[in-house]
Amino acid sequence: MAETILDFKNVCFSWKNSGRELLNLPELLVNQHDHVFLQGPSGSGKSTLLALVGGILVSESGTLKVLGTEIKSLSSSARDSFRVDHIGFIFQLFNLLPYLSIEENVILPLSFSKIRSKRAGRTKVDQVKEAQRLLKALGLGEQLAEKSPVTELSVGQQQRVAAARALIGNPELIIADEPTSALDADLRHSFLDLLFSECKKAGSTLLFVSHDSSLSELFKKKFSMNEINIIKN
Amino acid sequence: MINLFVRSLWNRRSTAVLTIFSISISVTLLLGVENIRQGVRGSFSSAVSGTDIIVGARGGSLQLLLYSIFRIGNAPNNLSWESYIEFNNDKRVKWTIPISLGDSHRGFRVLGTNQNYFKYFRYGSKKKLGFSKGKSFSKLFDAVIGSEVARNLNYQLNEDIIIAHGTGNKSFLKHDDRPFKVVGILRPTGTPVDQTVHVSLEGITAMHIDWESGAPPMEGESLSSEDILKRDLKSEEITSFLIGLKSKIHVFSLQREINTYKEEPLSAIMPGVALQELWNILRTAETGLRVISWFVLFTGLLGMLTALLSGLNERRREMAILRSVGAGPSTISFLLIFEAVFLTFTGILFGLCFLYITLFVSRPLLETYFGLFLPINPPSFKDLFLLGGIILAAMFMGVIPAFKAYRQSLVDGMTIRL
Questions:
Q1: pLDDT tens, residue by residue, B49-89
Q2: Is B263 exposed, middle or buried (0-12, 13-18, 19+ CB in 10 A)?
Q3: What is the number of structural domains in chain A?
Q4: Is B325 within 8 Å of A97 when comparing Cβ atoms?
Q5: Number of A:B CB contacts under 8 A?
């Protein structure tokens, strides 16, 4: 039986000082190895949902289990370690630290997570090799060989480095927040293909967030924020 | 973590270098002002240790102190030899040192005195004058020079020197008919003694013996040195004299007696009191300098805070990336506070380097031109305390961007602001 990766039940969140409710989610279930498409325009509560999953914000009521762990029960620092141990993030843009090399950007999460560090390789050399393997699989062998600074990479290449960083150490969940919105249409599809195949290899569940419903055909499981989020206003 | 910190800071090195630079300048200024202040005070105090009373012609006490000890300015008048003998023979007096000023040698003052000078004069922590070469003057045209005179003019023993009338460097009237011979060179003292040419009182008299009202003798009328030796060379006037008492108890009564002396208008001062007067005058300037250096420090730290805060907007993505890979608020805060402390600490280190380089470079100049001897000491306990306080202040300043970054990270959540 497939394990449950995300399990939301009656999760509510509002900012303490404004009192405005941002999220009211009666139910959301994501199973292991699912590739889920979460569609919603900006302001639909997407960002709040991701911050809750990442443990940066904490819900007021309801239960939110990630990999069976109630996020609310963890301390602030435990949530930080939980996040890096089990989740890889890909942002829309500016994923990379400009002062680190391509490989260093990829292995960045490993210095914050023992679990992923162990999975990526026993020694630092093994970990760098694993980073290089991922980068090559994502089609960045040339840039790697040339030791290009990350600031000279194209947006598409930067996003692929970010994907490698999210995938390294095989976290259970990959969250990609609009990772393709800065890419051209044909690049978009090739990026997604690579992401799908690497997620499959790593055994990771993918939560893909986008406002662009045209990509939803590529996913078997789809949610729309407008349907699952029932805020009163 | 440290690697991340270093690489991130290196990425923003131009701002960092400017911040470090401005902090180091303010530290140099802050400690420099304090150092020079203490150096000046120490230097002045050390030049008169052991002297209880200074006596000169009636005039301001500060003026008397400055011309008799520090060779700054000139005496308004001389005092008579009779008055000097009168107080020299007083029962309460242990020793006196007569001082006769008014001539110079290539910019260095010439001081006429007697053997008491080498026996009783004290400097620093009650140290006696010592000879590095030669001995005290014994003949009429013997001279003993201070270490700085010897070093500066590259004089050795047995050098003939010609003394100029008046105190300017470019005096036209020279006692060139009666050269003096260097018989002794004193050890460095770090006081005006180093810049002085010492001769006997008789030597001073001999130089001026046939001068009429400050003008040199007409040609052919000047006496030969042999003739001078036959003359009675008793001084008629001296500029001032120093008194050492048998017991400090008598200092006030003797001072009062000298100040109210019927035969001649005289001034008697206690060096410590006159110095205090000097400090009072200088205090305003000192306070001004100190206030300025505090403001410079404040500006330096404020500049750092500005750089950190404005940098934070650019670093918002950096923080979000670090958050996404598991860095907690404590890690982010640590990075920012540590950066503030690191910049300040480096600034302090550079500031100390600047300070000591400046002190080492300026010391010989100050010594030559102002007779000030600046001791170069390692930072005092007070200085370290001050520097510690600056680092603490920097830490508190680092809390501001750290808190702001924490707020930003909550608002940003798991997204990157474009």
A1: 889 999 999 988 889 998 888 888 888 889 999 999 999 99
A2: exposed
A3: 1
A4: no
A5: 80
